[in-house]
Amino acid sequence: MAETERAGSGDGAGPGRPPSSAELERAEELKAQANEFFKGKDYESAVRLYSSAIELNPSNAIYYGNRSLAYLRTECYGYALADATRALQLDSKYVKGYYRRAASNMALGNNMALGKFKAALRDYEMVVKVRPNDKDAKLKYQECHRIVKQKAFERAIASDEHKRSVVDSLDIESMTIEDEYSGPKLEDGKVTLAFMKDLMQWYKDQKKLHRKCAYQILVQVKEVLAKLPTLVETTLKETEKVTVCGDTHGQFYDLLNIFELNGLPSEANPYIFNGDFVDRGSFSVEVILTLFGFKLLYPDHFHLLRGNHETDNMNQIYGFEGEVKAKYTAQMFALFSEVFEWLPLAQCINGKVLIMHGGLFSEDGVTLDDIRKIERNRQPPDSGPMCDLLWSDPQPQNGRSVSKRGVSCQFGPDVTKRFLERNRLELIIRSHEVKPEGYEVAHDGRCVTVFSAPNYCDQMGNKGSYIHLRGSDLRPDFHQFTAVPHPNVKPMMYANTLLQLGMM
After folding, report:
1. Closest Cα to residue 428, out of 409, 411, 403?
2. Is residue 451 classed as helix, strand or coil in its secondary structure?
3. Rounded to 10 degrees, what is the CA torsion of 191, 263, 466, 378?
4. Is the pLDDT of residue 354 over 70?
5. Do 59 and 24 contact (CB within 8 A), yes or no?
6. Could you tell me the pTM of the whole model?
7. Comparing C-alpha atoms, which of 218, 214, 275, 287 is closest to residue 250?
8. Whole-angstrom Cα distance, residue 74 to residue 44?
């Protein structure tokens, strides 16, 4: 949904004309219907109906506040912030508007914007003043205050110069594996197929890999990734195929199901995993160490690209940092952070298909050579080509629009067509967005989305999918699958307190 589409353009109350009683009554009916869709977790339908209510009665703060919450649920944080702000312009005493605006700013603050956290803190402070006995508001205020102090401290001590690697402080050889540990171990320090099979079963049984083995994998995969270019370029022969997977988001048991359905990775069965391996799902450690293990086993036939969740700020809020600290240590999370910075940003197959996590660029004229030149070994900036590759989204209408997420942009079919023609490409494959069917074909078949986390966060009810690309024609062949049962560990178990309190 583009920014220009959100308010609608029906025959409701126009400028200078108050809505009629019939329009007011109809708007309330639409709001009630939208509320039911919201309760049923059909947030897109809820947004559509709230928008219709707003068309009929654009001065009702509650409609904007409700739509803001629906946008929060679908991670359209930029839209959510705009609606919450509009609600407060209409009614400065609308307390839920401050809640919504605070939650939106918290979410937008994840992309390294300390100012957004401070804005959220001001809104939570307002809620606490209005509702001094509201325990929920106090908890959110206290947590937001803690994050503001933490972010300010991190900024004060941050220095990319002379940055010392965690690897320099590790002494893996001196780490002992206790006699009582009966789990998988690397063979002479190397990942083998037998190790990977044992590891997946060990994880399936909800057991933890020994920290020495985890550190061995991380140190080795960092070396492998650091040697790769920012744009990986691979050739697929006519008789070969590759499987492209989208977001997996810590859903380990669904990852195992992909391998069950499509076969284990091998030199004859290559994979590309297109970012967002971690966060939200509470088995992110299991997912990422499994993927890193296969990268070590088949470095030229198992490919990993960076997503917007392979970043510090997202990990701090959405659970991966908390999960690593709970299962291992803060030092290990710091090493994960270093490894993530070396993940490539894009992959090109046969010079015809370009794969990236987010999408295309905020400006025309970007070439494959520009992507090759990106210095990726860092946390992503809040604008520019690196940010766009991780964050942007397609939209149905031509041109570009303000991002629904509040980061990067949305790009239309004409933008995709120009980019492909300039770079002599035929197709882009991206991920980054949950889709009801697990995939979506857009922009006259030139832009494909693939998403591989079915029933996302145990609540969206979506299918997952993966794509087969064959060297003979490079046409995407979609394979859908549904979620499988997993142990009773809820998503977001390790997420930031504000997320667990339901504010985002």
Report:
1. 411
2. strand
3. 0
4. yes
5. no
6. 0.91
7. 287
8. 8
Burial label for 163, CB within 10 Å (0-12, 13-18, 19+), is exposed
With beta carbons less than 8 A apart as the criterion, state whether 310 and 380 touch: no
Q: What are the angstrom distances between the C-alpha of 191 and each of 36, 39, 188, 266?
A: 51, 47, 9, 13
Distance CA 436, CA 460 (A): 8
Classified as helix, coil or strand, 497 is helix
Structure-block tokens of residue 126: 């307002």
**How sure is the predictor about 497, in pLDDT bands with cuts at 50, 70 and 90?**
confident
> Residue 158, exposed/middle/buried by CB under 10 A (0-12, 13-18, 19+)?
exposed
If we measure between CA atoms, which residue out of 419, 417, 414, 348 comes closest to residue 388? Answer: 419
Instruction: Determine how β-strand 464-470 pairs with β-strand 477-481.
Output: antiparallel
Q: How many C-alpha atoms does 427 have within 13 Å on its Cβ side? A: 15
Q: Output phi, psi for 62, to 5 deg.
A: -65, -40
DSSP for residue 163: P
What is the rounded distance in angstroms from the CA atom of residue 435 to the CA atom of residue 452?
A: 9
DSSP H helical ranges for 205-299: 211-226, 252-262, 284-297
Annotate 110-145 with b (16+ C-beta within 10 A) or e (fewer).
bbbbeebbbbbbebbbbbbeeeeeeeebebbbebbe
Residue 23, amino acid:
E
Distance CA 170, CA 470 (A): 43
Residue count of the chain, please give it.
504
Q: How far apart, in Å, do the first and last CA atoms of the chain sit? A: 19
Q: Is the pLDDT of residue 113 over 90?
A: no
Question: Nearest Cα to 175, choosing from 202, 214, 218?
Answer: 214
Q: What is the Cα–Cα distance from 279 to 309, expressed in whole angstroms? A: 7
- Distance CA(305)–CA(315), nearest Å, equals 17
The CA angle 145-456-440, to the nearest 5 degrees, is: 120
Is 145 among the residues known to form the active site?
no
The reported pLDDT for the residue numbered 464 is 98
- Give pLDDT, residue 122: 92
pLDDT-derived band of residue 88, with 50, 70 and 90 as boundaries?
Answer: very high
Summarised one tens digit per residue, pLDDT across range 279-300 is 999 999 999 999 999 999 999 9
Which one of 210, 301, 309, 357 is the catalytic residue?
309
